[in-house]
Amino acid sequence: MPVATLRQLLEAGIHFGHQTRRWHPKMARYVFGQRNGIYIIDLQHTLRQLQKAYDLVRDIAAAGKSVLFVGTKRQAQEPIAREAQRCGMFWVNSRWLGGTLTNWSTIRRSVRTLLSYEEMESSGQIERLPKKEATKLRKERVKLDRNLCGIKDMNELPGAMFVIDAKKEAIAVREAERLGIPCVAIIDTNCDPDMVPLPIPGNDDAIRAVDLFCRVIADAVIEGRALAGKEHAEKAAVKVETQPADEAEAKVPSADDVEPDAYAESEAAEREGSASEVPAQATE
To answer: What is the mean pLDDT of residues 21-45?
Structure first.
């Protein structure tokens, strides 16, 4: 079953590219034509690439790895956060901090600072500080939360990254490429498709288009995690079934397991018992 239909892509306006004067020549292979000064994207290519992206993300999620959703432009902020939370993954939708991936240890220190501020806020410790200092800490906490709230629970680098508008998120794309992290990105007619290993040609400005892309990738994550859970349950069931048989075999001692001294003692006891029985039978 396809992850989406051509009708759904058309209704979302995914086929609308940028104006013909704003385009990247390498996008020519994904362009169907132009109309009223606007490039029309070939949705057959979009559907094919979207299916590849779905399969990749599903397999990565099934392997137990995480997926990072990235989209900081205004149209993408809400669907990126919503769909990432729906599938239990991480997101960046406010600002991409340089070094988020390549300088992960520094980012983790900032996350720990944010978590400590949140702990101070919840415990009421900030209320006991001087008013000026408390105000300063709260402002810093809000700033950190805006930039890091989507990745504060991410304890390791993601297994893949999904990006809305590869051109705008060029820094994030380059960091993922440098670390060998698979990147799936929506590219409009003004983007270089060679920026990412798996480009998806489509409208990256329309809210409905962005929403559809985010929803499909989130569905891929959900399916992958379901497959991982099913596989784990099957392995656990097999282990439970084989365990009693293994235990029973372990309880039955073999002749090799009996110690020689113990075996000799038992034989001597049997001989003594049989010798004592012989005189008794003779007197009778």
So the answer is: 95
The CATH architecture one would assign to domain 6-230 is 3-Layer(aba) Sandwich (3.40)
Output the pTM of the full model. 0.81
What is the spatial distance between Cα 123 and Cα 102, in angstroms, rounded to a whole number?
A: 34
pLDDT of the residue at 126? 86
Q: Give the amino acid at 121.
A: E
Q: Is 84 helix (H, G, I), strand (E, B) or coil?
A: helix
- Span 216-235, mean pLDDT? 88
Domain ranges of the chain: 6-230
Determine the pLDDT at residue 278.
Answer: 45
Quote the strand ranges of the chain, DSSP E: 16-19, 31-35, 38-41, 67-70, 90-92, 160-164, 183-187, 198-201
- Long-range CB contacts (within 8 A, 24+) of 21-25: 22/189, 22/190, 23/189, 23/190, 24/189, 24/190, 24/191, 24/192, 24/193
Residue 13: how many CA atoms within 13 Å on its side-chain side?
13
